[in-house]
């Protein structure tokens, strides 16, 4: 089956790069994708693994400091009638997770292939387990697991030392990633 030259030309045109503000210490793997027309801001020491996708077609995407977006994870909205997505500091978004939430709070963990939908607003220090789907408000220190069941993480809420240790672990993980993943952040510069 023959293809026309006009059809071929369309596939040869690279997607427009969104306006990006990427901190100089952030690691953006060469195979990570950032698409859309809205601004994308990536904070200090944040790591985007290969094949992580940031979608700013429907609104701006802001990712805070010391975050990790793993391989195959998607952050942001693709539709034209989307909204801004804010990922606060010290958030880990695991492999294959999809996050369209308006807000994911400080210190959260989004599990493997979890889906955090458009209506979600995730509080601080929450954990969304692997394969879970959330599309509503999740209060601070909540663990969502097993078909939407929820419980409060009392130890994390009551012990600041545990929260500090998790934050320190993320900082050390980012330092390791800087050694293992060559950064291609320059290709996203204006």
UniProtKB/TrEMBL annotation:
One of its GO terms (molecular function) is dynein complex binding. Its main location: cytoplasm. SUPFAM superfamilies: Trimeric LpxA-like enzymes. InterPro entries: DCTN6 (IPR027777), Trimer_LpxA-like_sf (IPR011004). One of its GO terms (biological process) is mitotic spindle organization. GO terms for cellular component: dynactin complex. It comes from the Eukaryota. It is found in: Cytoplasm, Cytoskeleton. Keywords: Cytoplasm, Cytoskeleton. Belongs to the dynactin subunits 5/6 family. Dynactin subunit 6 subfamily. Part of the dynactin complex that activates the molecular motor dynein for ultra-processive transport along microtubules. This is Dynactin subunit 6. It comes from Meristemomyces frigidus.
């Amino acid at each position: 089956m023959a293809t026309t030259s006009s059809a071929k030309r369309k596939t040869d045109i690279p997607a427009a790069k969104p306006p990006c503000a990427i901190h100089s210490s952030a690691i953006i793997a060469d195979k990570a994708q950032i698409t859309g027309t809205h601004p994308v801001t990536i904070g200090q020491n944040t790591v985007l693994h290969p094949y992580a996708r940031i979608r700013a077609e429907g609104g701006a995407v802001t990712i805070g400091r010391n975050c990790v977006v793993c391989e195959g994870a998607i952050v942001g909205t693709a539709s034209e009638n989307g909204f801004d997505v804010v990922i606060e500091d010290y958030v880990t978004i695991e492999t294959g997770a999809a996050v369209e939430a308006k807000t994911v709070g400080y210190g959260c963990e989004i599990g493997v292939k979890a889906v955090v939908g458009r209506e979600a607003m995730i509080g601080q220090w929450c954990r969304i387990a692997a394969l879970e789907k959330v599309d509503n408000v999740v209060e601070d220190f909540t663990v969502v697991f097993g078909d939407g069941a929820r419980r409060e993480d009392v130890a994390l809420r009551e012990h600041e030392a545990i929260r500090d240790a998790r934050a320190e672990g993320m900082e050390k993980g980012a330092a390791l990633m800087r050694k293992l993943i060559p950064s291609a952040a320059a290709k996203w510069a204006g």
